[in-house]
Amino acid sequence: MLSIESLKAKIDDKEILKGLNLNINPGEVHAIMGPNGSGKSTLSNILSGKKGYEVNGSVTFEGQNLLELETEERAHKGIFLAFQYPLEIPGVNTNTFLKTSINAIKKARGEKELDAIEFLKLIKQKSLELKFDEKILSRQLNVGFSGGEKKKNEILQMSILNPKLSILDETDSGLDIDALRIVSEGVNSLRNKENSFLIITHYQRLLDYIKPDFVHVLKNGQIIKSGDYELAKELEKVGYEDFN
Amino acid sequence: MENNIKLNFENYLNEKNFSSSQKEIKEDNFDNFIKNGFPNKRIEDWKFSDLKQIIATNFDNIDFSKKEKQSNIDENLTVDLEHNKIVFIDGIISKIDFSYENEEKVVVEQNSNLEKELSENSLLNLNTAFVSDYTKILVKSGYQLKKPLILFNFLSNDLNNIGLNARLDIDLEDDASLNVINISNENLNNNFLNFRQKINIGKNSILKNYNLDINENSNFKYSFKDINLEKNSHLEYFILSKGSKFLKHDINCSLNREYGSVVLNGIIDLNEKKHHEIKTKINHNEENCKSYQLIKSTLNDNSKGVYQGKIYVNSKAQKTDGYQLSRALLLNDKVEFNAKPELEIYADDVKCSHGSTSGNVDEDSIFYLMSRGLSYEQSKKLLTNGFLNEVIEKITNDEVKLLVKKLMGINE
Q1: Is there a contact between A49 and A74 (Cβ–Cβ < 8 Å)?
Q2: What's phi and psi for B284, nearest 5 deg?
Q3: How close A234 comes to chain B (CA, Å)?
Q4: B65: which residues sit within 8 A by CB, 6+ positions away?
Q5: Which of A95, A152, A207, B165 has its CA 20 to 30 A from that of A236?
Q6: Cβ contacts of residue A221 below 8 Å, gap of 6+?
Q7: What are the beta bridge partners of residue A68?
């Protein structure tokens, strides 16, 4: 599904990714763990098309050169980034935003757009599944949301858009245990044979809730080791500094 | 141009049979206008909108002769809410409809006697010189109108290079309430429109005034409003400044008795080469009054926006609460925005603040929205609508709020 080969990325002449390789097949959950500054967020930004990086190497998504696509085209193809810091958008009603988003994607795929009733039905169902208070959806997008509410809102968006590849950028940061559980349950409910996940995190904690198929250690812009869930446990014991 | 205007004025005086005192008032005002001409940028109030220059660039001549013929008018402007209405065509009343109201309590009359005055503002001189019949709306004591009043302003399609002066007075006696929506459907020719309103809001009365300049038109407009508030009265004032080629809203609002309050919110949303200004002066003349102003601007293409806002606090006006904020989004590097927020305070126990910011749309927010499948343009539109929506949300009449959202293409 996703294949990254010798990916290098620079920003302001500073090399952040230094030849990263990664393959994700349909249905797989991959976790990338790494210390601050190892390039985790850069990777998620590049996969979702954020501007400002000088990028080399190849990234293909379902056989297509991903690096040629605009951010919104990647979303249309089924890539979703759950932001580490979801942005507050004043004056924009969350429901309006969600409807615009899902219909933009449906339109790009040549599918029929949802009308108001179909949309509300979908929202109701998804909010219920994720134990998400619907009232929050009539508020301005992320404005005045608590950290937990913002992250839950990201997961709700993910659930509504039903992406093929979801990238979760430190979704666990700033979450209390209860919110962490709800967010993880949300992710787990979306797991199936087709959908893949790339989970980026500092801590093993999140991986206790969302069991990954593969764990990779990112250090200094490269994946230095890959393994299964046991690798995460080992990391937690040893720490990033001494891990080689 | 000056000679033509003089000729227009002579003909006008000859046509109308004014009393000698009225004639004198008009002549004095006209002389003042001729002496000072259209205001230019050397006048502080006009430093960001040099009307003299703008008129010179856009008009070879302006014809101020009276137009009696009304023809070829687009009146198909429908507004989707129940309302009373007064329709003005080329500044002259053509229809009055207060069928929702007790007609004894709302009086609309034509007046031709002007009070003696000689303003320093040459456009007010011009207005006084050329206005003969003006309209006065009186809401009697204790009456609250059931439905909003829409003031429609239409211009004949064939008017071109015309100068039009009009005046309207609104008088709310005590304990009265009125919602007024000003909406215009003007033409795509170059005309100069000089509107003046005098508004009095009586004790315990409430006026909500929504000014919607939404329809695309090529007119150059000056709108001056002089608003006086009595004890415990309230004014809600909203401006949507969008459709005209040039528009300056000039508001002079005086809180003359205790516990008066003003909420003044405005949007300047421009494209092409439009140039709009909102200038406000809020005079706190007595104790315990409040004023609140929020102006938001979004500027596209080569447009120019201006906000000049002054809060004046008289030495008597202790416990004044005054607030003023201007925020502008500059959507490319060819636009211009000027803000001049001012406080002039002579009392010591007051709470006043002002602020002004301008900047670009936040690229990180755009990235966030694009990552959810929206195009760049869609994201930008959503962000700017959201930015302006904060002002629209302050409209307290829900029907008007919905109408404005619809007119702005903001869907819920």
Answers
A1: yes
A2: -90, 100
A3: 34
A4: B8, B11, B12
A5: A152
A6: A8, A15, A16, A17, A18, A19, A20, A38, A39
A7: none
Q: Does B389 reach chain A within 8 Å, measured CB to CB?
A: yes
CB contact under 8 A, B371 and A80: yes
For residue B321, what is the enclosing H or E element? strand B321-330
DSSP-H helix ranges across A10-109: 40-48, 71-77, 94-108
Q: pLDDT tens digit string along A53-69? A: 999 999 999 999 999 99
| pLDDT-based confidence at residue A135 (cuts at 50, 70, 90) | confident
- For chain B, what is the mean pLDDT? 93
**Average pLDDT estimate for B361-374:** 96
| Predicted confidence band of residue B75 (pLDDT cuts 50, 70, 90) | low
Please indicate whether, in this complex, the C-beta atoms of B374 and A104 are within 8 angstroms of each other.
yes
Per CB-CB distance under 8 Å, the chain A contacts of B361 are: none
CATH of A2-86+146-238, one of 3.40.50.1000, 3.40.50.300, 3.30.1120.10, 3.20.20.140: 3.40.50.300
Q: Do residue B374 and residue A101 have CB atoms under 8 angstroms apart?
A: yes
Q: Return the closest-CA partner of residue A28 out of A218, A212, A187, A230.
A: A212
Mutate to test the interface with A, among B325, B362, B369, B392 (most CBs of A within 10 A): B369
- Facing B389 at nearest CB: one of A49, A91, A108: A91
Secondary structure tally for chain B: helices H, strands E? 7, 19
Please give, rounded to a whole number of angstroms, the shortest distance from the CA of B390 to a CA of chain A: 6
Question: Contacts of residue B376 in chain A, CB cutoff 8 Å?
Answer: 70, 72
Q: Which is higher by pLDDT, A219 or A174?
A: A219
Query: Which residue of chain B has the CA closest to A47?
Result: B371
Interface test with B, best of A92, A161, A162, A165 (most B CBs within 10 A): A92
This prediction has a pTM of 0.89
Mean pLDDT of A140-150: 91
Residues A10-57 have pLDDT tens digits of 998 899 999 999 999 999 999 999 888 889 989 999 999 999 999 999
Structure tokens at A238: 């040893």
Yes or no, beta carbons of A105 and B389 under 8 Å apart: no
B369: chain A residues, CB-CB within 8 Å: 89, 97, 101
Contact (Cβ atoms closer than 8 angstroms) between residue A110 and residue B408? no
Q: CA A125, CA A120: separation in Å to the nearest integer? A: 9
| A57 residue type, one letter | G
Q: Which of B367, B374, B376 sits opposite A100 (nearest CB)?
A: B374
Closest chain A residue by Cα to residue B370: A72
Sign of the four-CA dihedral B325, B330, B333, B337: negative
Query: How is chain A split into domains, by residue range?
Result: 2-86+146-238
Banded model confidence at residue A130, pLDDT cuts 50, 70, 90: confident
**Structure tokens that stand for B181 in this block:** 């929506």
* Per-residue model confidence (pLDDT) at position A132: 82
Question: Rounded CA gap, B302 and B296, in Å?
Answer: 18
